[in-house]
Amino acid sequence: MIKTLKYLDKKDWLFVFLSLVFVFGTVYFELEIPGYMAKITTLVQTEGSVMNDVWSAGGMMLLSALGSLICAIIVAFFASNVAASMAHTLRDKVFDKTMSFSMEEMNRFSTSSLITRSTNDITQIQVFIAMGLQAIVKSPIMTFWAINKILDKNWQWTAATGGAVLIILVIVTIVITYAVPRFKKVQVLTDDLNHVTRENLTGLRVIRAYNAEDYQEDKFEKVSSKHANTHLYIGRIMSLIQPTITFVMSSITLAIYTIGAFLINAATGGAKFELFSEMVTFSSYAVQIIMSFMLLIMIFILFPRASVSAARINEVLDTEPVVIDGNINDTNTELNGVVEFRNVSFQYPDASAAILKNINFIANKGETVAFIGSTGSGKSTLINLIPRFHDVTKGEILVDGINVKDYTQEALRNKLGYASQRAILFSGTIRSNINFGENGKPKANDQQMDLAMETAQGKEFVDSNPEKYDASVSQGGMNFSGGAKAENIHCSCH
């Protein structure tokens, strides 16, 4: 969790510092209130007291409450800004890191896990920071300051308060010991739930075509039940905390007043009034001590999940991509349109044997080269090695006479056209999808797009749409047929 703090910028650290300052202000004003309460109690019980003194003490008490409210609002404002800024930075960095991953890293983490890490996990950290800046600092300050104010009071009351705190600590320790191991499991199960949901929604047409709804429902139910049962287990354990604290708070107030009743009954004269005022003040401070422990407990509840989430995010950010950029950024080379494989072998990281062995060939400019083989023979893998979606295990691949590893990935892919095996379209318009392959270059005009669509035999499809190139495309091109998707994909490569 601490490693994620390095992503805070100077503005965030300034807000953290200001939060700490105003937390001190909040604690100061809150701890002044019992003192004014005791003063009012003493004035009411003392003969000859004037009403102006009572009003004055009451006014100061009200101002202290108002000061505490204002400081708490300011702390919440700064804390929420820091948390939102941290979440924004982490999402950007996780997304940028993911964009740098090769297929090896993508397969290692899985798409569903990366989605969970960039959404749910970062949200857990955001909530923890927003709450933590208010509670982590406030709780110990409030505890020690309140204890300091009651140290010189009656030892019986102090012992009762200490016993209440000890009971809370024991309960919290037991709860956290059993709950923490489950938090990591929850995040993994969230990945699984995300994976199954995404798979079902993506393959909905296939599921319906094969009447496999019941099978997929059972598959989803198993994952969902595990997720729900783990949450229920944690919820049942955590449910012990709130009633325990409420019981302890009620009990400590009852204990203080019960002890106070005996002490006041045994006292004589003016000592009775003094003990009564001390009892009122002490009970207020005791409740504030218990409340400060409640804040700490809230952090104990949030911290395990945030810690697990931070570890998962750091795992992504600390992963070094296998595919590293070369130094050549110039696409102008002596040769043009020549691809050569020299003794190329490739083995997937989790495979026991190489899928490609000692592949040698040259594809010259203007030639059409076809790879024919059975399913799983490595045809797609061979093609994916050229744009460096994977790096070769042995040998080398040359594009225009230069090893693909010597190019920057951007320069290499600017030299290639790519029509994927699966037709993938992005939300936007037909125009934006056709221009997708022109990233970093001047966008094609209507005449150039017409030529591209005619080459891909998709001009008739565009002309039949009233909006032509400005027709909307839904996510994944779900509003297009398979052939229309393929036409757009081929056009984006020209």
Detailed description of the structure:
With 494 residues, this protein is mainly alpha-helical. Helix content is 66%, strand content 6%. The chain contains 16 helices and 6 strands. The chain has helices at residues 10-45, 51-100, 103-109, 111-135, 138-150, 155-202, 204-209, 213-238, 241-266, 271-317, 379-385, 409-414, 430-434, 446-455, 459-463, 482-492, and strands at 339-346, 356-363, 394-399, 402-403, 428-429, 472-473. The chain is elongated, with a radius of gyration of 34 Å.
Indicate the overall shape.
elongated
Indicate the radius of gyration in whole angstroms: 34 Å
Task: State the low-pLDDT regions, or none.
Answer: none
- Strand portion: 5-15%
* Distance between the ends: 47 Å
Strand order of the largest sheet: 2-1-3-4
Helix content: 55-70%
Which H/E pattern describes the elements? HHHHHHHHHHEEHEEHEHHHEH
Query: Count of helical segments?
Result: 16
Mean pLDDT level: 80
Structural class: mainly alpha
Number of DSSP-assigned strands? 6
How would a crystallographer describe the biggest sheet? 4 strands, antiparallel
